[in-house]
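User: I'm new to structure prediction. If I give you an amino acid sequence, what do you actually give back? Let's try with this one:
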Amino acid sequence: SGHVQLLPPQNVTLLSKDFAMILTWAPGEGSPPDVTYTVRYESQDRLDKWMKVPHCKNIPRSFCNLTCALSNLYVKVRARVKAVWGRSQSPWVKSQFKDYYSDVELAPPVLTLNVGDNSIHVTASFPLPTCVENLTWKYDLHLWEAGSEDKKKYEGYFRKDTVIINTTALRGNYCFSARALYESIELKHSEFSQPLCVLLNYRG
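Assistant: Good question. You get back a string of structure tokens that encode the predicted 3D arrangement of the chain. For your 204 residues, that looks like this:
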């Protein structure tokens, strides 16, 4: 008959990581190596209407990035996945409910320093999915002299803003670090980025 008892995917989890909503799972026990997976999702405002996710139909990998497939970032959603192999299909397995708005996990921004004669221009770029570009992402920037605990804080800048710092009075090795911010139900922020240090007005 060509039908094999295909066991369903395990550990099906909807997680939020680095600005993205991702469904992850592990292959069911004894799955053939060329098994594929299909994912759908439903939102809490339209229960029992399982929406297709075109880029996650018959895929070989065991994750699906749902961020830009979601019709509404403010409504809780859950997803389900099934294994497919030839004409066999496993039962669907559902994840828990989550919504992007309140569950999003932020990644630290990547800083770029543009050092001029008397100033530094600092910009922060975020690894954002395109569909969430226009939410109001912000960042905090910290500046300190290497080895000192005393940090100068520049807070609440919009993602596309450049922070311009006058460096005429700064001498020595200065470090910069930033974190992403997002105002949802409560204020969320990422970890601070790895410090980026630069020698200023160094008279060697």
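You can read the tokens as a compact description of the fold. Here is one thing that stands out. The chain has one helix and 16 strands.
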